[in-house]
Amino acid sequence: PTPRDLEGVKVVVSAGPTREYLDPVRFISNPSSGKMGLAVAEEARDRGAEVTLVTGPVSLPDPSGVRVVRIESALELRDAVVGAAGDAEIVVMTAAVADYRAAERSDEKQAKVAGDVTVHLTPNPDILAELGVQKGNRVLVGFAMETHAGVERAALKARRKNADFILLNYPTREGTAFGGDDNEVTLVRPDGSHEAWPRLSKREVARRLLDEACRVRERRRET
Ligand code: C5P
């Protein structure tokens, strides 16, 4: 049976890709399906949490019993997550945030020209890192996708962003990560300690993620 260990706890989950528009009809994005974030939101809801799911464009229906905020760009994602995170105790960033947006977004559709074009991109804010600066008692969880030196890079990322732990996955494993129903992740803590989990359903990954978040929360409340 599902434990009710998050009764009344406010949880914020971000999910899906962001879209960074170049003009009204063209954007930079990625293939994130939003399934991992949805699984975390549903699992937290079933454990009694008050859940806000901030999601980029995904083709999944809104889950019931969850407050859903739909956004498109990383800047909109930041506003929604920071707004909801104020009184949240757990924030899980599964969203695949675009690292860059167009430096200037055109209000008119850009006409095709002969030859190459150059697009000037500017970095998006790192939302997880921003939350890490004003962390308070919140438990902050991130995801990371790496092709090499995963554990070291993820631990470094957790320290840099002041996250409590990061779930590391690899884009190359068949049937996991982008779009799939399963995920194969390694839990990485800021001190570099880590646990490789077997291939699991995204719901089971969500369950273990929230178990770990509850352990971090308990430890923090004891000190
Ligand atoms: O640095 P990297 O993109 O690999 O970090 C991934 C983690 O940071 C994810 O949890 C993602 O949601 C979060 N992130 C963020 N804002 C960004 C980029 C990533 O919150 N601009």
From TrEMBL:
Chain intervals for the UniProt region annotation (Phosphopantothenate--cysteine ligase):
11-223
Q: In which pathway does it act?
A: Cofactor biosynthesis; coenzyme A biosynthesis; CoA from (R)-pantothenate: step 3/5; Cofactor biosynthesis; coenzyme A biosynthesis; CoA from (R)-pantothenate: step 2/5
KW Ligase (keyword) present: yes
Q: Where does CTP bind?
A: D99, K109, P125, D126, I127, L128, F143, K157, K161
Q: How is the cofactor bound?
A: Binds 1 FMN per subunit.
Q: Where is the DNA/pantothenate metabolism flavoprotein C-terminal domain?
A: 6-213
EC number(s) stated in the UniProt entry for this protein: 4.1.1.36, 6.3.2.5
Keywords tagged on the record: Decarboxylase, Flavoprotein, FMN, Ligase, Lyase, Magnesium, Metal-binding, Multifunctional enzyme
Cofactor(s) annotated in UniProt: FMN; Mg(2+)
Q: Which reaction does it catalyse?
A: N-[(R)-4-phosphopantothenoyl]-L-cysteine + H(+) = (R)-4'-phosphopantetheine + CO2; (R)-4'-phosphopantothenate + L-cysteine + CTP = N-[(R)-4-phosphopantothenoyl]-L-cysteine + CMP + diphosphate + H(+)
Q: Which domain of life is it from?
A: Bacteria
- Role according to the record: Catalyzes two steps in the biosynthesis of coenzyme A. In the first step cysteine is conjugated to 4'-phosphopantothenate to form 4-phosphopantothenoylcysteine, in the latter compound is decarboxylated to form 4'-phosphopantotheine.
What family classification does the UniProt entry report for this protein? Answer: In the C-terminal section; belongs to the PPC synthetase family. In the N-terminal section; belongs to the HFCD (homo-oligomeric flavin containing Cys decarboxylase) superfamily.
| Name the UniProt record assigns to this protein | Coenzyme A biosynthesis bifunctional protein CoaBC
Primary gene name: coaBC
Section covered of the full-length record? 169 to 391 of 391
